[in-house]
Write a structure and sequence with these properties.
The protein has one domain: Rieske [2Fe-2S] iron-sulphur domain (Rieske Iron-sulfur Protein), CATH 2.102.10.10. Helix content is about 0%, strand content about 40%. The protein is built from no helices and 11 strands. The strands form 3 sheets. The chain has a 5-stranded antiparallel β-sheet, with no helix packed on it. A 3-stranded antiparallel β-sheet has the order 1-10-9, with no helix packed on it. Strands 5-6-7 form a 3-stranded antiparallel β-sheet, with no helix packed on it. It binds FE2/S2 (inorganic) cluster. It comes from Bradyrhizobium pachyrhizi. Keywords: 2Fe-2S, Iron, Iron-sulfur, Metal-binding.
Length: about 130
Amino acid sequence: MQVDAIYAICGFNDIPSRKAMGFHLMVLDHDGNHQPWSIVVVRWGKKVLGYLNRCPHNGVALDWEQNEFLDPDGVRLMCGKHGSTFELGTGLCVDGPCKGRTLTPIALTVLDGDICVVGVRLVEDNASRNE
Ligand code: FES
């Protein structure tokens, strides 16, 4: 049985509560090829939530400006392209052109004060945070 690796991507306190941060990572696919993997991580109090940084409307990254993921009220994720908004806790689009569709969730965990991704094989040399 293969055990999934756990990869720390940033400290829990690197993302203030009610803020989101993007990460451009690289994963190994089933054939061993490197594939770009862009994610957005939301911190909400003691919870962290993660989604692929890809709008279900036409597949672009959600942040129209680097690390600008939230709507003006700071309570939903928002796509900068056409303004679709998504519930933080579910990724469900509740307004905009892709209403009713959902962001793709990713598995995260917090371990020893770090936010970690699980369930993927990362190419660690190419991991970088949006800054
Ligand atoms: S690409 Fe995101 S709302 Fe159109």
